[in-house]
Amino acid sequence: MKKLGRFLGLLSIVVALAVTLGTLVPRPLWQTAAATPATTRHILVLNNPIHTDIAIPVDDRVRQRFHFLVDAGIPADSPEVRYIVFGWGGRAFYLETPTWSELKAVPVMKALTVDASVMHVDVAGAIVEPHPDVAGFEIGEERFAALLDFIDASFQRGPKGPIVVPDAAYSRFDGFYEANGHFNTLVGCNTWTAAALRTAGLRTGWWNPLPASLGLSMRLYN
């Protein structure tokens, strides 16, 4: 028991150190000089205690890019919609834990090991800022296009395009799609968000497994 206690204590120190360094060491290390874009897009990062999403402002180009959402019943073309909200995560945990009261052992075990991944897509009207759970960033049109490419490439595709997960949704306005990549303790939902933000020209911490560490690194380096 003493050896187990020492091992767990050492493991806790290693994890805490990794999270701290992952937050404080920026990625990329050096800020590259960039011209001020003529026009910008205002994107949002939405967070809860364990998960982050990216909210993309919609216009006709964005609606056309993600037209397959409407085919699946997600009302991205509704005039009331101001943002399409994208998140990537572990399949079992995402699909089987719509609320904390429904937490089960198997999805937790898969999240702590290796699981398939899914994309969750939702829509939103106006989102209030400032708000503790919302962070807004301005990016240029070129970086905005790169971000759309990154998100689009995260969807797994079949012969007919992105693959809908049948009968999987939290409400009438959202849905799930099969995604590329595997979820594990090192590569999770928040590291996906961080990679997307780096594609958009923003700097994150080197490794951000938690919303709190990602948020702190974003405030430090942007």
Secondary-structure map with pairings?
Blueprint: H1 2-24, E1 26-27, E2 40-47, E3 52-57, H2 60-65, H3 68-71, E4 83-90, H4 91-96, H5 105-112, E5 114-124, E6 134-140, H6 141-153, E7 157-158, E8 161-162, E9 175-184, H7 189-199, E10 204-205, H8 211-221
Helix pairs in contact: 1-8
Write up what this structure looks like.
- The chain is α+β, with helices and mostly antiparallel strands and 222 residues long.
- The chain has a domain of 155 residues.
- It has 8 helices and 10 strands.
- It has a 6-stranded antiparallel sheet with strand order 6-2-3-4-5-9. The chain has a two-stranded antiparallel sheet with strand order 1-10. Strands 7-8 form a two-stranded antiparallel ribbon.
- Strand 2 and strand 3 form a beta hairpin.
- Helix 1 packs parallel to helix 8.
- The model has no long low-confidence stretch (mean pLDDT 90).
